[in-house]
Amino acid sequence: MTNTALITGASRGLGLALARSLAGAGWNLVLTARGAADLERVAAELGATAIPGDVREPAHVERLARAAPELNLLVNNAGDLGVTPLPPLADYPLDAFAALLETNVTAPLALIQATLPALRAARGAVVNVTSDAATGAYEGWGGYGATKAALEQLSNVLAAEEPDLRVWWVDPGEMNTRMLADAVGAEEAAAAADPAKVAASLHDLIGARPASGRVSLQ
Q: Which of 24, 65, 175, 208 is a Cys-bridge partner for 114, taking CB atoms 3.0 to 4.6 Å apart?
């Protein structure tokens, strides 16, 4: 039987690299991202199903769940950095923080809820992509880090409530991605890890299927 994975934020960065790695191992893929053109190109390359849209929208979440009635792996990779340049918490716009929580916390939970019947049936796995900003006190990273800390605790409780699943909240470390470049500049981002190498480690984790928990890939 072919394994099926649903990956959000799959048009670039870690999501794209993991999609390529899983496709190479014969996985069936359902991919989503907001950029339709980029996502369609990726899907054509990998022979995957592309469902472009915004994971904050309930109708889109429902479409994704319907597209994967049999599901072995959910990867909540889509996320937002928030306000840039990164502001101190004293100046963080509260409306922007509320929007960031919706993207980085509420949307992953909504997709988990929508796909849980299929994941339970397959005794599958959930990967929630987090960050060391969830645990470290880095100036300017308070808004983003707070959302990732919330996602980590959500994952921790989900693992306790769904013992037949594997739930991993995964800190990929710094990677050479557009998001990191937006935060720290292109020159510093270029020195970070290649997402393909990080995706290979994540693929190994998925294959090894260790106990639920927090995982650092670098």
A: 65
pLDDT in tens, the chain (218 residues): 799 999 999 999 999 999 999 999 999 999 999 999 999 999 999 999 999 999 999 999 999 999 999 999 999 999 999 999 999 999 999 999 999 999 999 999 999 999 999 999 999 999 999 999 999 999 999 999 999 999 999 999 999 999 999 999 999 999 999 888 988 899 888 988 899 999 999 999 999 999 999 999 98
What predicted TM-score, i.e. pTM, was given to this entire model?
0.96
Q: Give catalytic residues, as residue numbers.
A: 144
Total domains in the fold of the chain: 1
- If you search the block for the tokens 């509420």, which residue do you land on? 106
Q: Which two tokens stand for residue 73?
A: 């792996």
- Omega before 88 cis (within 30°)? no
Longest dimension (CA), the chain: 53
